[in-house]
Amino acid sequence: MSTPNDNLIRTVMTDPLHILAFGFGTGLAPFAPGTFGSLIGVLSFWLTMDFGLYIQLIIALSATLVGVWICGESARRIHVHDHSGIVWDEIVGMYFTLIAATSSLTGWVLAFVLFRFMDIVKPWPIRNLDRKIGGGIGIMLDDLVAALYAVILLVLMSVFDASA
Known about the structure:
The chain is mainly α. It has helices spanning 4-13, 16-21, 33-48, 53-78, 88-100, 105-121, 126-132, 135-163. The protein has one domain (4-163). It is built from eight helices and no strands. Helix 5 packs across helix 6 and helix 6 packs across helix 8 (135-163). It is globular, with a radius of gyration of 16 Å. The N and C termini lie far apart (62 Å).
């Protein structure tokens, strides 16, 4: 007998749109799917780290624009707005955050922790964005603002570290 979770796994893993939205299956993790999806963002950044800032920004902006459709359409098809398994937004948010991080293990870990913290805690106005804006824009926007907050903290930390 199949369970609703079995049906979701089958739906996700047989549709290329859902495969992308669910972060190549990481969104199906039984716990912390956003964290696992963020790891795909780390991998994506690592694969493009030698491309240069402008190409990385083009990749991030393209992934954002495509993500609005991917996330919105995936949510529409499974009939759940911002399902926790839809992690394309975490992938893109993590990628944006790493653009601002220093090229060191410490910088990457700090970027990861700050982004995940902002995405989980959802300080104002992230929580409002998450609740008030529907569709793919709403799904993407809260993670982009979480990334912005993480980037601001990374920049402030580097400024204070440089002045010490």
